[in-house]
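Fold description:
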Amino acid sequence: MPGREAEMHPVLKAFVCGSISGTCSTLLFQPLDLLKTRLQTLQPAVNGSGRAGMVTLLFRVVRTESILGLWKGVSPSFARCIPGVGIYFSTLYVMKQKFLVDRSPTALESVFLGAAARAVSGICMLPVTVVKTRYESGRFGYGSVYGALKSIYQTEGPRGMFSGLTATLLRDAPFSGIYLMFYTQTKNLTPQDHLDPVLMPLLNFGCGIFAGILASLATQPADVIKTHMQLSPQKYHRTSQAIAFIYKDFGLVGFFRGGVPRVLRRTLMAAMAWTVYEQMMEKMGLKS
């Protein structure tokens, strides 16, 4: 095993570390993603059901779909996150090796690196992201990820496979850029040289939580727009149409629907992914 690890290319090591970290965080926090999608797509109603909170919706899903219903969409989430997080971290590793020589990135460089790496990953995995969003909405009866991809391509063409691309990039690229900036700058402010190595994962997780909250709040409107466009691509051909609909039906607050579960999920997922990634990279003898 050590010999095989030594032969592995550093970029492949970064991909493997990222994929494993993405697997752990996806499995744990999938219920929050499902609740976020359901909250964003609840229709306003006279009886007030459109204003159901996260806890109310949680019990509703468990009551009508069983406890396992909270993990609906976990298959496409795995199909997206395992390679997607791997692509993100390996792309980030390559760019750091190319543009940064044994130094930490500045705040502006962190924004660029995080946004560029996420854009590459997001474009590659967007068809699976569309499937994941539809699975979680509970409105589609797809039997498998492959079957869903085939059905979307046959009925909606390439446009359906990449619906919500602009909104996804407007959400994911800024999120990753802002996240990486706050994460690296917060870590630089901490006295790591005098810290017990056992506490390093806790420090990384704490920095990740702080960065995740700020990045999630800043990109929440784009996430709501993305969800609507991927669920109804035949209705919204442009991002501006989705924005107009959300504002007309829900007002400004509509752009922050599902914000609580998303902030919780994105923050915890990113913090865990970075913590696991950095620990694994360190064990492989690579600088993350």
In short: Residues 46-50 have pLDDT under 50 and may be disordered.
